[in-house]
């Protein structure tokens, strides 16, 4: 199964519901608001990405990539509740909002107007996987695994994913999570996300395409010069 690369990277939550994979402690956020920088390498192509996190404003996260900007808002448990996407050329400009068990889209994508909704269930929406999953880990809401939703921005369709702890990695400083689709497609794609002990995303490794596609690596870096 090919997942849109931006969806996996930015593609990037947790609602309270009865699930044996959750406990309900509410530890405070360890890393705070501000700017964080990342570098993405796929084959010979390298791009810089930066986050800016505003905890006082609906846990807002702005993600800036070459030619596009995502702005996410999250609830108090860091589940995505809405986002706004804009391309720098103005061809795409749309919003997505969770209303109950649907994600509703309105705006313009590649010059065409969209007004549609996709169904999900009570599981959380983690559109920014690295941000939301990191907060779920440090808040002790994940023991072994967690299911969550994202949408594919190339098709505006919903996809349920599962993140599982990689118990083969023993570290006092990092937590590794393997993310893959649920159900029949679980063997077709996976990506590894690594989080620092304070919950900050520090590395992604995965192949975001068909067999033969170069591996994508994203790493947390110091501010680029």
Can you characterise this structure?
This protein has 225 residues and is mostly beta strands. Helices cover 7% and strands 47% of the residues. The longest helix is centred in the middle third of the chain and has 10 residues, at 129-138. The protein is globular, with a radius of gyration of 16 Å. Mean pLDDT is 85; it is low at 1-29.
Keywords:
14 strands; 225 residues; 14-stranded antiparallel beta sheet; 2 helices
Task: Furnish the topology, listing elements before pairings.
Layout: H1 5-9, E1 34-42, E2 45-54, E3 60-65, E4 68-74, E5 80-87, E6 93-99, E7 102-109, E8 112-119, H2 129-138, E9 145-152, E10 157-165, E11 174-181, E12 191-196, E13 201-206, E14 216-221
Antiparallel strand pairs: 1-2, 1-14, 2-3, 3-4, 4-5, 5-6, 6-7, 7-8, 9-10, 10-11, 11-12, 12-13, 13-14
Low-pLDDT stretches are 1-29
Largest sheet: 14 strands, antiparallel
Helical content (DSSP H or I, runs of 4+)? under 10%
Strand order of the largest sheet: 8-7-6-5-4-3-2-1-14-13-12-11-10-9
What integer is the average pLDDT? 85
Tally of alpha and pi helices: 2
Strand content: over 45%
Q: Structural class, from secondary structure content?
A: mainly beta
Count the E strands. Answer: 14
Which geometry do the CA atoms define?
globular
Radius of gyration: 16 Å
- What order do the helices and strands follow? HEEEEEEEEHEEEEEE
N-C termini distance: 37 Å
């Amino acid at each position: 199964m090919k997942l849109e690369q931006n969806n996996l990277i930015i593609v990037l939550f947790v609602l309270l519901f009865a699930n044996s994979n959750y406990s309900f402690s509410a530890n405070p956020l360890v890393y705070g608001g501000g700017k964080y920088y990342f570098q993405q390498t796929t084959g010979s192509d390298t791009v810089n990405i930066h986050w800016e996190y505003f905890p006082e404003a609906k846990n807002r996260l702005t993600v800036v990539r070459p030619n596009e900007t995502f702005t996410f808002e999250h609830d108090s448990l860091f589940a995505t509740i809405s986002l706004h996407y804009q391309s720098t050329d103005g061809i795409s400009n749309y919003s997505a909002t969770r209303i109950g068990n649907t994600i509703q889209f309105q705006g313009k994508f590649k010059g065409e107007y969209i007004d549609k909704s996709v169904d999900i269930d009570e599981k959380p929406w983690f559109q920014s996987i690295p941000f939301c999953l990191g907060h779920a880990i440090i808040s002790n809401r994940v023991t072994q695994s967690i299911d969550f939703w994202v949408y594919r921005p190339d098709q505006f369709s919903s996809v349920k994913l599962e993140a599982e702890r990689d118990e083969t990695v023993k570290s006092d400083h990092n937590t590794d999570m393997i993310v893959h689709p649920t159900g029949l497609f679980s063997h077709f794609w996976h990506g590894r996300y690594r989080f620092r002990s304070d919950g900050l995303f520090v590395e992604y490794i995965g192949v975001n395409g068909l067999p033969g596609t170069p591996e994508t690596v994203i790493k947390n870096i110091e501010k680029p010069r």
